[in-house]
Amino acid sequence: MSLNVGVIGAGAMGTAISQCIAPNTNKLLLYARRKEICDDINEGHINCEYHPSVKLHENIRAVNDLCDLKDVDVIFLCIPSSVMRQTMVQLNDIVSDKCIFVSTAKGIENKTNKRMSEVIEEETGRSAVVLSGPNIASEMMKNLPSATTIASIEKKDLEIVKSVLSTPKLKVNTNHDVIGTEFCGIIKNILAISQGICKGMGINDNAKFAVFTKSYNETK
After folding, report:
1. Is 208 a catalytic residue?
2. What are the sequence ranges of the domains in the chain?
């Protein structure tokens, strides 16, 4: 299956996902808010700001207008949770009603405490596929072995997104537990911050793993 795919957000993760899936697509459009990033990608096939040492796949074309995504079959939303709603309002008037949205955002909406899939469904009237880690952008750019998890209540959407994401180096796990997948992605980031604090404080390994064990139990 060869699809037209859009990726919104030319930051570290958006660029990494584009690099991974470009060989699986017919056409890949990477939306960047800043025109200078678009120019770097289209002229030199490099995202100088986020991954300056990696040559991007020839199949990736950067765009600076969301309207350029009107004919894509799948859109990966690699944007902060804080701008998800306004982005979906714009996209709802642009893309077809068959376009599949994939949220990579780890977070909840500040004022409503809603998950990203809830925000997407409110603004577009359709279910979203959610993507959760472990995904380290720098390793994905280097095509190192990795795995990711996607969840949706729509079996067909899961199959399509899995076919786009799967590569010899990227294993894709699927499930229908959208709520659990989103909340685990959020909590995982909180645990990562706590471990980073431990490292920064120079805490010994026993204490560090004690914090991790307590955090893991609280997560469950």
Report:
1. no
2. 3-176, 185-219
Percentage of the residues of the chain whose pLDDT score is greater than 90: 90
Question: What is the spatial distance between Cα 37 and Cα 24, in angstroms, rounded to a whole number?
Answer: 23
Name residue, tokens 């678009």: 38
Condensed to tens digits (0 to 9), the pLDDT of residues 51-96 reads: 999 999 999 999 999 999 999 999 999 999 999 999 999 999 999 9
CA atoms of 68 and 71, how far apart (whole Å): 8
Task: Identify the active-site residue in 188, 199, 214, 220.
Answer: 188
CATH class of 3-176: alpha beta
Contact criterion met (CB below 8 Å) for 28 and 51? no
SS (H, E, C) the chain: CCEEEEEECCCHHHHHHHHHHHHHEEEEEEECCCHHHHHHHHHHCCECCCECCCCCCCCEEEECCHHHHCCCCEEEECCCHHHHHHHHHHHHCCCCCCCEEEECCCCECCCCCCEHHHHHHHHHCCCCEEEECCCCHHHHHCCCCEEEEEECCCHHHHHHHHHHHCECCEEEEEECCHHHHHHHHHHHHHHHHHHHHHHHHCCCHHHHHHHHHHHHHHHC
Q: Is the peptide bond before 134 cis (omega within 30 degrees of 0)?
A: yes
Find, among 146, 124, 130, the residue nearest to 186 by Cα: 130
Single pTM value for the model: 0.92
Residue 1: is its pLDDT beyond 80?
Answer: no
